[in-house]
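Hey,
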Amino acid sequence: MSNAFKDMLAADRAIFLNVDEFGEQHTVEGKTIEAVLDDDIQNDSKYGEDIGLAAADLALYARDEDLPPRRPAGEALNINGKEYTIVSWRTDYGMAVVYLSHQISG
């Protein structure tokens, strides 16, 4: 991948996560980061069902380096003081997308 393309991706990521644009301050595992939380992932389209994420309630978009080490599906992730279950976690070009479901306690 060329340096120019990497620079463009980094610039796009910075704009997307900027708190003056789309990003917000969120606390993930006790660390405050700039991220985007999308709780409308299944209402926009059938995207969640198309990729087998019917159980996902929320998508977290953040810089990979701002998050704790990647965790497998089924493990917990604390966001803003609430525990969520990881449905899937992928990283593309430094941007992590973590699909989450609300944990139900008995």
